[in-house]
Amino acid sequence: MSDSNIIGKQIGQYQIEEQIGQGGMATVYKAYQPSINRHVAVKILPSQYAQDPNFLKRFEQEAKAIAALEHPHILPVYDFGTQDGLTYMVMRYIKWGTLSKFMGQPLAPERIVTLIGDVASALDYAHKQGVVHRDIKPSNILIDNNGEALLTDFGIAKMMAGSSATQLTGAGSVLGTPAYMSPEQAKGEHIDGRTDIYSLGVVLYELLTGQQPYQAETPVALVLKHVTEPLTSPRVIKPDIPDPLERVVVKAMAKDPGERYQTAGEFQRALQLALREIESGVKTANIPVSTTTKTQSVAAPAPAAPKSGSKIGPWLIGGGIAIALLCVLGGGLLLFGLMASSGDNRGGTPAAGSPTAVAIGIDKTATPTATPEAPEPTPTPEESEPDPTPTENTLPTLEPINLADIPGLNEEILFEDDFSSNTNDWPTGEQSDEYGITNTEFVDGRYRMTQEAKQGVFVWNDLTEVDYDNFVFSVEAMPVEQQVADTFAYGITFRENVDDAEYYAFEISADGFFSVNLRYNEEWETLVDWTESPAINRGSTNQLAVKAVGPSLTFYINGHEVAAVEDDTLDTGAIGVAMDLYDKGDKVTVDFDNLVIRAISADELASLGDNGGSVLFEDTFDSDARGWATGEFEDEYSQNEVTIENGRYVLSVTSKPEKLPYVEKALPNRDFSDFILTVDATPRDTETHYSYGIAFRLDDDGNVYVFEIGNDRLYAVLLYDEEWKRLKDWSSSSAIKPGETNRLIISAKGSTLTFFVNDVQLTTLEDDTISTGQIALVVDMAEGEKSATVEFDDLVIRKP
Question: Which residues does the annotation mark as catalytic?
Answer without folding.
Answer: 135
